[in-house]
Amino acid sequence: MQTPQLSVRELSIDDIAPLTQYWLSCTNEYLHGMGVDVNKMPAKEWWIQLLQQQLLTPHAQKQSFCVIWHLNDEPVGHSNINKIIPSQEAYMHLHIWKQSARKSGYGLQFIYKTLPFYFNTYQLQHLYCEPYALNPAPNKTLAKAGFTFLKEYITTPGFLNFEQPVNRWHLSRNAFMQLQHS
After folding, report:
1. pLDDT score of 29 more than 90
2. Would you say 70 and 6 are in contact if contact means Cβ atoms under 8 Å apart?
3. CB burial class (10 A; 0-12, 13-18, 19+) of residue 89?
4. CA-to-CA distance for 22 and 48, rounded, in angstroms?
5. Distance CA 64, CA 119 (A)
6. Domains of the chain with bracketed CATH
7. Which segments of the chain does DSSP mark as H helices, in order?
8. What residues contact 122, with CB distance under 8 A and at least 6 apart?
9. Which residues pair with 147 in a beta bridge?
10. How much is the pLDDT for 104?
11. Which band of pLDDT confidence, cut at 50, 70 and 90, is reported for residue 1?
12. Is 56 left (phi over 0), alpha (psi -120 to 50) or beta?
């Protein structure tokens, strides 16, 4: 059996269609499990415009920075950061598009491959992730990846979300550097 090949790269124009399709093809149940309010889901054209604008914006001015996850040269997910304050902090989001790639251990490997993009591109000192507290997959994966649990609290974490409990996870630059050398 061939060893799965995982790779990560920055968002490109070719990724707009599959990334948009991911958001628009998720079942309501799946979206709710991630903490998404299905009534807030934007139309296809909005997603396309948002992603095209992200590609045109220089790194230093981006409000969001996205990488695409590949399994055997096939795009299977993405991660992005927002609330970016260069040289300080950002907030990470994790999405595996393909059901066949979920619950496989790939999420942890993708996080490890993604962290250098965020810490190095933006010289971050702190990276946070705030998944829905009732969504076990990202919470377990972040713990395995070396993130520190800080707290659970109630908020509306993003424009797509309903008010919900979230878990705040943190990875410092020092912890990232230690991961790089282990």
Report:
1. yes
2. yes
3. middle
4. 12
5. 14
6. 6-180 (3.40.630.30)
7. 16-25, 28-33, 44-56, 106-122, 136-144, 173-180
8. 59, 65, 81, 84, 86, 87, 90
9. none
10. 86
11. low
12. alpha
pLDDT digits (tens, 9 = 90+) for 59-116: 999 999 999 999 999 999 999 999 999 999 999 999 999 888 888 889 999 999 999 9
Cα dist. 126→7, 92, 98, 110, 118 in Å?
A: 23, 11, 29, 19, 10
Print the SS3 string covering 149-160.
Answer: EEEEEEECCCCC
Compute the distance between CA of residue 144 and CA of residue 138 in angstroms, rounded to an integer: 10
| Reported pTM | 0.95
**Cβ neighbours around 81 below 10 Å, total:** 25
CB-based contact 125:89 (threshold 8 Å): yes
